[in-house]
Description:
Blueprint: H1 2-29, H2 31-56, H3 65-90, H4 95-102, H5 105-116, H6 123-140
Helix pairs in contact: 1-2, 2-3, 4-6
Amino acid sequence: MQGAWWAIFAAVALGAGFFVIGYGLTPRVGGVQATWILRLCTLVLTFVTLKVWQGRRSGLRPADGPGALKYAGWSGLLSTGAILVTALGLGHGKDSVVTVLGSMSIVLTTVLALLLNRERLGAVQWAGVGLAILSTVLVGLK
């Protein structure tokens, strides 16, 4: 259940963050510039967080060499691309539609977990996937 609380917190933070991007940042600087500003802030905050964490906690698990760097690189590239496309969409469309359609990433993550990690979903989870797809379709309709 602890993971669910983290997911709820993440959903609230992402929702508020995308609202700020669409309402305040993108209209003022544009989608590409907004993406670079966000990435710069992310980089700075990551280094500050790691520095604070290292100072408070000894015995941090070392990175898994080149394997970890490869996944970190792909993750950074894909997330930057996702934020860029979202920021461009927020600058040219309805924020409510752009963010809801972008939320299909949750369904894609679930499908990838099923295929690549061989995870299993229960009936209630399958219902959630179906409702997520249905809600996205309904919000996308005019």
